[in-house]
Amino acid sequence: MIFWNSETKKLExxxxxxPKNTIKDQEEYNTGIINGGLTVGSKxxxxxxxxxxxx
Length: 55
Prior knowledge:
This protein is an alpha+beta fold and 55 residues long. It has one helix spanning 23-35; strands spanning 2-5, 10-14, 42-46, 49-54.
C-alpha cells in the first residue's frame, strides 16, 4: 500500500502486509467490485513498471 499526498505530490509512505490472498485473488476481487458498480483505487506494478489500474 502506498500513501500518496495529492496536494504536495509526495510519497508519504509504503505499507506492506503479508496477505492471506494471492495477488491473482486480489485482482479478481477488484474486478468483481468494479463489475458490481463500486470503485477500487488499485494499481499494479512489477519491478517499477506499471501493469494495470483498477478504477
